[in-house]
Amino acid sequence: MKGIEHLPPWAAVLTAVFLLTGAAVTLIGSLGLLRLGTFYERVHAPTLGTTLGTVFIAAASMICFSVLQTRAVLHEILIVVLGIVTTPIALTILVGAARFRDTAERAQPAEPQDK
Amino acid sequence: MTRLLPFPIVSVCLLALWLLLNQAVSFGHILLGCVVALVGGRILTVLELPPVRVRRPGVILRLLGLVTMDIVRSNLAVGRIVLGFGRRQRRPGFVEIPLDIRNPYGLASLACIITSTPGTLWVNFDAQRGALTIHVLDLVDEEEWVRTIRDRYERHLLEIFE
Asked: Where are the domains of chain B?
């Protein structure tokens, strides 16, 4: 494998653009965690990072290392695929827990505050 | 399928996973990958899963294309909401969608699609009534979401799995 300084300009530019786009998308998704109001809204935001963010960063990595090693480096695909397949499980469990708490709170009248 | 290969699709995926992880397509790795694939497939029989039947590979490709397009589009939409462009009143809310699909693999695929798309979230599926509840970040028209999920995704999944 050659060092990063051997990366031809076109590959360097492409890698940089993909990497920065992916990082920006992930950052916006994480910002959403801060800016959105309720729990149900906030759960939407990180999916930006797990979908397009990951895809862009993985693409940057594939381009960079495929060019440097002059062979196809494809195992980043696994990160994208496994990420997209597993995120719904975590999110669905989180939302299920939130719903369970909501219905439990609604069914049970609030505890008296003064004891 | 057979006793040797109860879950052919899973086994093929395991072999591909092994080869990708090792970044090598040599004879030795193919052999090792086949062992992993066979053993992995056999282990799954312990879970007593219903058999997978997948049809219409063309429809799978079309669905993948649709989903990719939707993911890109909703990434942009949610990004705009987070950054606060286009400040009109946004109303998040739950939508209930009647579904015809009952195949567990089809439902799992639908859950992946809905949750991977930013802006929509799988909340609950009532198997008795066949009603799916999703949460939508920017709810404009409930009817439109029911139509989108049913016509865009469920119809294709029904073709593939049932």
From this structure: 8-47, 57-161
pTM, 2 dp: 0.82
Out of B20, B82, B121, whose CB is closest to A28? B82
Q: Which two tokens stand for residue A62?
A: 């594939």
**Cβ of B56: how many Cβ atoms within 10 Å?**
13
Report ipTM (2 d.p.).
Answer: 0.79
Could you report the per-residue pLDDT of B23-68, keeping only the tens digit for each? 888 888 899 999 999 888 888 888 878 877 788 888 889 999 999 9
User: Please, what's the largest Cα pairwise distance for chain A?
Assistant: 72
List of residues 6+ apart from B142 with CB closer than 8 A: B93, B95
CB contact under 8 A, B82 and A29: yes
Architecture category of domain B57-161 in CATH: 2-Layer Sandwich (3.30)
Q: Which helix (H) or strand (E) holds B94?
A: strand B93-98
Query: Does the distance separating the beta carbons of B78 and A48 come in below 8 Å?
Result: yes
- What's the CA gap between B115 and B110, in Å, rounded? 8
DSSP-derived 3-state class of residue B117: coil
Pairs of residues, one from chain A and one from chain B, whose beta carbons lie less than 8 Å apart: 90
